[in-house]
Design goal:
Layout: H1 2-12, H2 17-24, H3 33-43, H4 49-60, H5 62-70, H6 73-84, H7 86-93, E1 97-104, H8 111-122, H9 133-136, H10 140-145, E2 152-157, E3 161-167, H11 175-182, E4 187-193, H12 200-211, E5 217-222, H13 229-245, E6 255-257, H14 260-264, H15 273-286, E7 299-308, E8 312-318, E9 323-325, E10 329-334, E11 337-348, E12 351-353, E13 355-357, E14 361-366, E15 379-382, E16 389-398, E17 414-420, E18 423-431, E19 442-453, E20 460-465, E21 468-478
Parallel strand pairs: 1-3, 1-4, 4-5, 5-6
Antiparallel strand pairs: 2-3, 7-8, 7-15, 8-14, 9-13, 10-11, 10-15, 11-12, 11-14, 16-19, 16-21, 17-18, 17-20, 18-19, 20-21
Length: 498
């Protein structure tokens, strides 16, 4: 232990006296002294020194790295300073552009393993915390079944950007959770296993990503170590054609081949860690950060909610537009509810902040709201800025059977689940004109929702039937709400709302 601490002192003694004092304190036998060092390190974060120390001593001085690892000091330094002192990592992210990304693709193709590998490799610089596979898939059912069910949100930092990463579920049974996650992305990482190629959810995830507004896709061909090079070339060609089919730029979209599992296990080959660095370089270059609306009243589609003991209810989501601040008056809207509240506190990746801007993934503590009153899919918005309704005019396109849609035409009084933003409700579709819409046709329709929700002009939606996406559309205008008797959509008099 003494050798390790003296080596650290030699590296940093010319910088700050407080570091020398803290490191020397390790020479005693008290079990609390290492924690004292970590706290001292956190205290000087204002000068950005902890990040510099970690990078300089750990990367440039192999002897120090060996000594620190031997005495188990490096793990404590990284984990304590990073987790307990949020201002340490916040200072290193300052000034970096923020981008929302995520992993999409078929179940068991390696999305969660890739997410864990990214955080492990970036954690070496000290600005990113390693999040293990088990931490991402933390629900008991997820661990038992070995699949992702709920979208998980992870934070990491590259040389040029700060990322909020959503790991979406790939299983068909949890597609609504995937829609919720994809609706928050500025760009998507499509993960496809080299030994499987494209699968049903590969195609459906691309369709849904396009529908919710994702413009850029980077492909990561995973498990590349399991196949020959000629197979990799065929899979790449297949994926570029698939991107073109769904309106993405197949020719110019980056395609990276690698193995997330090899990278996670520390393999430094081209298919291991180097493939992760290639992927990170690709998303830094290819994903365009959109122009965000900071001037309009804020809207926060709610993705999740939980209770903090002694404080109240926290709602989680990605801010769609505007700026949210502490003590702002707000409303929770959706599912026939209109609840007035006040923003008591705001946290961005567990860092308490006075305000958050469009594009930030955040948690907002809402005053006087019981957790039983909040549902995923509700909208937290500036007071008086939005209205709820259940009747809308829209333009819709019904997919052909070849696209994964219906084989039969759609007629009025067609009732299925409608998905938009982070919510889904039963919806009745009535044709504005004509007797039917054939698969592959566009048309104007009236939408009648079972529950009153917030839908504004230009908002996109998806219609699903029997676990398949059968239609996509966009809202044209809001109409007068209609009365739904005994929750029976088939008995609604549509003329009442026109």
């Amino acid at each position: 232990m003494a050798v390790a601490t003296r080596s650290v002192v030699m590296v940093v003694r010319n910088h700050l006296g407080i570091i020398n004092y803290a490191v020397r304190s390790l020479c005693t036998t008290s079990p609390n002294k290492k924690t004292i060092f970590c706290k001292k390190l956190g205290c000087i974060s204002a000068c950005n020194f902890s990040h510099e120390l970690l990078r300089y001593s750990y990367r440039s001085h192999s002897y120090v790295r060996h000594c620190i690892s031997t005495c188990n000091f490096n793990h404590e330094l990284l984990s304590y300073s990073y987790r307990s002192h949020s201002h340490v990592r916040h200072s290193s992210n300052k000034g970096k552009l923020h981008c929302n990304v995520g992993t999409i693709g078929h179940v068991d193709h390696g999305k969660t393993t890739l997410t864990a590998a990214i955080t492990k490799i970036l954690s070496r610089d000290g600005a990113t915390r390693f999040v293990s596979y088990d931490e991402i898939d933390k629900a008991p059912e997820e661990r038992a079944r070995g699949i992702t069910i709920n979208a998980a949100h992870i934070e990491y930092v590259t040389k040029n950007r700060h990322y909020a990463h959503t790991d979406c579920p790939g299983h068909a049974d949890y597609i609504k959770n995937m829609i919720s996650g994809a609706s928050q992305m500025d760009g998507a990482i499509l993960v496809v296993a080299a030994n499987d190629g494209q699968m049903p959810q590969t195609r459906e995830h691309l369709l849904l990503a396009k529908q919710v507004g994702v413009e850029k896709v980077v492909v990561f061909i995973n498990k590349a170590d399991l196949v020959e090079n000629d197979v990799l070339e065929l899979v790449e060609l297949e994926m570029r054609e698939l991107l073109d089919d769904f309106g993405f730029n197949g020719l110019h979209s980056p395609v990276i081949c690698g193995s997330a599992l090899l990278a996670l296990n520390g393999d430094t080959s081209e298919l291991g860690e180097n493939s992760i660095w290639n992927l990170l370089d690709a998303i830094d270059r290819y994903f365009v950060i959109p122009t965000r609306d900071y001037t309009s009243p804020f809207v926060l589609p709610i993705d999740n909610a939980f209770t903090v003991l002694g404080r109240g209810t926290v709602v989680i989501g990605t801010l769609g537009r505007g700026i949210i601040k502490r003590n702002m008056e707000a409303e929770l809207l959706g599912f026939d509810e209109e609840i007035k509240t006040t923003i008591s506190d705001i946290q961005v990746f567990k860092k308490s902040v006075p305000e958050a801007k469009a594009g930030d993934n955040l948690g907002a503590l809402v005053r006087g709201v019981r957790i039983q009153s909040v549902q995923r899919g509700m909208l937290l918005c500036a007071a008086g800025s939005q209205a709820i309704g259940n009747h809308f005019e829209a333009n819709v396109y019904f997919l052909t059977k070849a696209e994964g849609g219906r084989s039969k035409p759609v007629t009025s009084k067609y009732i299925q689940q409608l998905f938009s933003r982070t919510w889904n409700v039963p919806c009745r579709v009535d044709l504005v004109s004509g007797e039917m819409l054939m698969p592959g046709e566009h048309g104007s329709v009236y939408l009648t929702l079972l529950r009153r929700m917030v839908m504004i002009e230009g908002q996109t939606f998806t219609i699903r039937e029997n676990h398949k996406t059968v239609g996509t559309g966009i809202i044209v205008k809001m109409l007068k709400s209609v009365n739904i008797v005994k929750s029976n959509l088939s008995k609604v008099d549509i003329k009442h709302g026109l």
